[in-house]
Amino acid sequence: LGKVLSTSKIVGMVRIRQVRNKAGPCVVPDKLKPHYSDCYDDYDMDVQDTEPFGPRDAAGKPIKWPLGKQAGDEVVFRFQDMWELNGLAYTGKVLRYSGGGYVHDLPTNYTQAMAEVALLEKWGWVDKGTRAVFVDFTIYNPNVNMFLVCRMLGEFLPSGGVVTSSVFRPLKLNPYVTMIELAVGIVEAIFYCSVCIYTVREVKELYADGYEYFNDIWNMLDIVNLTCFLCVMAIKIHTMRTVDALKIQVDEERYINLQPVGQYMMAYSNLNAFNGVLTWLKLFKFLRIFPAIGE
């Protein structure tokens, strides 16, 4: 699929995924029931459609792929759950959707990708049962050593309308490359060691004081503060291990799933922001030594 604005490149394949609803009876007047047998309500993760579907020829036999790596295989779109796809639930503008669904990965060659999109349109990959279509891909810019995790979403309403939205999350997945970044990494390691030491001290204090420990509001603030720091550490380590396991190469004929990493890093930023406020509040605990503030 090539470069974007001559400076960035799409990493791996583009994945399109849809979630579907099962057909149900139409709630219409009796005189109209012969004309409307099946209707589709709002999407519901608990009762979503998981049955395979696909186009058939005049004889009722499955059509075969005419091109690409799947050439000669029967065209059957099968459901994969969130565990198979390593996906997470996602909330759009209208509803919340599961991390599973029916996926198709487009080849990295632009001409072949557009040919497959045209075939999917011809075969009715999106139909009345479709309730949301996700387009997921990642872009890498070597000038700033940054990845951009992209998601475009179209939510299909029972009324026939489509609500669109998009999310773009910039990520620095290789954060320790330059000398300055390495220095920042060392400072982070020292800080996380300090958090572990203070956590052990708080646990010892809790063990020594028992229930009286919770009578001091500052102790409660310390617990929340340290818990947030520990969660941030866990997210950081998990993210680094996940990225390392993916073994990302720009020119690869496979889909590289960085969507969960993007959502983890969003949680990482939100926790850091919340913890920044808590840390600022803790200043008042130490400023109590000054009479004017202690009063």
Judged by helices, strands and strand pairing, the structural class is alpha+beta
Helical residues, percent = 25-40%
Radius of gyration: 26 Å
Number of strands: 9
Folded structure, characterized:
Helices cover 37% and strands 20% of the residues. With 295 residues, the protein is an alpha+beta fold. The strands form 2 sheets. Strands 1, 2, 3, 6, 7, 8 and 9 form a 7-stranded antiparallel β-sheet that branches. The longest helix has 31 residues, at 179-209. The radius of gyration is 26 Å and the shape is globular.
Looking at this protein, list some descriptive labels:
295 residues, alpha+beta, 7-stranded antiparallel sheet, 6 helices, 9 strands, 20% strand, globular
SSE layout and pairing:
Layout: E1 3-4, E2 8-20, E3 79-80, H1 82-85, E4 90-91, E5 96-97, E6 101-106, H2 110-122, E7 130-141, E8 146-156, E9 162-171, H3 179-209, H4 217-246, H5 259-286, H6 291-294
Antiparallel strand pairs: 1-2, 2-6, 2-7, 3-6, 4-5, 7-8, 8-9
Helix pairs in contact: 3-4, 4-5
